[in-house]
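Feature request disguised as a bug: please show the residue count (180) next to Acireductone dioxygenase in the output. Example input:
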Amino acid sequence: MEENVEDQRLPHKGNAPEYVSMDKLADLGVLYWKLNPNNYENDEELNKIRESRGYSYMDLLDLCPEKVDDYEAKLKNFFTEHIHADEEIRYCLEGSGYFDVRDKDDRWVRIWMKPGDMIILPPGIYHRFTLDTNNYIKLMRLFIGEPVWTAYNRPQEEHPARKEYLKSLKEINERAVEAH
Ligand SMILES: CSCCC(=O)C(=O)O
Ligand SMILES: [Fe+2]
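Example output, currently without the count:
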């Protein structure tokens, strides 16, 4: 996506849009599933993911002005580039929104989340979130154990999760080179 944005809710694909493959996202450590959002209370596939990855905690987040205290302030924080010490796991049940992640060359990749899209962002990846022009999203948040939502705003080059992430990127890259 474009580097500089005036209205964060617009797509910002630029004049010559470039599309990023799921493989390239996987190379950044971003995992993706397509699930059935109408069946989230009884979804075997979701349960399997939760069990195998230890996601014991779950809550639902409805992002709209009526349901969120400090709505504008929250959205502003979500759109401030940051990392976490843990994975960020989000499953879109209704509405839509953009998760932006930095690629290897520090360019933004915009992920448009729609109902059924589930992503896991690895610890230490720089990212941000915004609603799109529909102004509504319902997200499931998952976590291993007691949730920690602390965001560390960029720059965080000395943060252990950041260092670990850069190391894992290097390893993914080396494996890709060997495979060719
Ligand atoms: C509303 S979920 C996405 C925002 C985010 O990056 C976060 O909660 O840390
Ligand atoms: Fe985050």
